[in-house]
Amino acid sequence: MLPPVPTWDSTDVVSIATLRSARSVKSNKKIGDAGGDCTTVRIDEAASVAWCTEMFRLPEGEIVGQGLATFDPAVGGTEFTWAITGGTAAYSSARGEVDVAESNGGANSDLQFRFSR
C-alpha cells in the first residue's frame, strides 16, 4: 500500500536547518523536524564519505532516509540522493528517494521527497 498524499505539499522542498527544524520552503511554516547520524566509512584526500540514516518527522508520521553522502569542506555544500527505506504511521510502507542539497557547510539542507508508485 502506498502512503497517502500528505497534508503538506509533497512537491514542496523541505528545508532542514542546523537546529533540525523542518520548514516548508513554499510557506516557511514549520512542518516537523529531523534527526539522525552518519558514520564515516572512507576518507579521501579532500573529502569523507559517510553512511547516514536520517528520520524525518512530519505531521502524518516519520520517513526514514538512508544512504552514502560525500562531505567536502572545500565545496561548502553537496548534493546526494538517499533511499526512502520506510517510515511510521502514514509512511509505514513508504519507498522512493529523497534528494538532499546541502548548503552553508552542511548546516542547511533542502530535501525533495519522491515516493515510488
Question: Could you characterize what this model shows?
Answer:
The chain is mostly beta strands and 117 residues long. The protein has one domain: Allene oxide cyclase-like (AOC barrel-like, Beta Barrel), CATH 2.40.480.10. The chain contains no helices and eight strands. The protein has strands at 14-16, 21-24, 30-43, 48-58, 61-71, 79-87, 96-103, 108-115. An eight-stranded antiparallel barrel has the order 1-2-3-4-5-6-7-8. The radius of gyration is 14 Å and the shape is globular. It starts with 13 loop residues before the first strand and ends with a strand. The model is unreliable at 1-20 (pLDDT under 50).
Uncertain ranges: 1-20
Structural class: mainly beta
Q: What shape does the CA trace take?
A: globular
Helix/strand order? EEEEEEEE
Radius of gyration using CA atoms only: 14 Å
According to CATH, what is the class?
Mainly Beta
> Structurally, how many domains make up the residues?
1
CATH superfamily: Allene oxide cyclase-like
In order across it, which strands form the biggest sheet?
1-2-3-4-5-6-7-8
Strand content: over 45%
Number of helices: 0
Number of DSSP-assigned strands: 8
The whole-number mean of residue pLDDT values reads 77
Biggest pleated sheet: 8 strands, antiparallel, barrel
- What percentage of residues falls in helices of 4 or more residues? under 10%
Cα(first) to Cα(last) distance is 9 Å
Quickly give the CATH architecture. Answer: Beta Barrel
